[in-house]
Sequence to fold (255 residues):
Amino acid sequence: MNKAKRRVVIAGNWKMNFTPAEATAFINEVKPLVAGKSGCDVVFCAPYVTIAAAQKAAEGSNISIGAENVHFEDHGAFTGEVSAKMLTECGVKYVIIGHSERRQYFGETDTTVNLRVKAALAAGMTVILCLGEVKEQRLSGITREIVSMQTKLDLAGVSAEEMKRVIIAYEPVWAIGTGLTATPEQADETCGQIREVLAEIYGEEVAEATTIQYGGSMNDKNAAELLAKENVDGGLIGGASLVATKFEAIVNAAQ
Ligand code: PEP
Fold:
């Protein structure tokens, strides 16, 4: 395995935070802090209504703005949903799919995650696909089986060519927003297991080229150790992506 072959991506997940005005102020604050840090791609995934303001503030910088979800149909009677076509017309290139909060609170299943992944890829977007085990599964020793199953189901029907636009975020659910972090060894081991599944499905070349992030209470203090691991190619960051200096420290750790 060769980590140097993969692009490191540091992505913030703002969740349900930041109004358009707050996002503008935040991007204006963080923009100079991450400028010229070419060792990683920098992305913030924003609530739908905040995307345009964040994009405007990020113009001319190395920051890309993504969405936090996307529906799998192009249009129709799906009140409250937003399609990939709507996002791409707004210039959105990245989208988080399958976040554990969507799975936990909004009934997302591997089947709907897979449909969303395929719709986003068909529209030309880059997907940040989230998966990971809950606490009981880790304690039962079935983490490998869980992430393997999720990887296979969520990527069913996705081609090797399309995998160039798939980033996987390994997010142990017990570590998200809890202040608990997987140890660097746990993160590396499970990201490595996901990479093995990718090798099974797509072959070594695709597996080696796929960016696999870690997410789950990554912050300014623990990022360097996590990002140093062979199989950890970046981070999906919730809480710490709302504080410019903390996010800057994570970006610095990725250089
Ligand atoms: C996330 O929202 O994907 C996440 C990892 O959150 P936090 O960093 O707050 O745990």
Summary: The two ends are 20 Å apart (CA to CA). The first helix runs from residue 20 to 34. The pocket of phosphoenolpyruvate is lined by residues 13, 15, 171, 176-177, 215-218, 236-240 (CB under 6 Å).
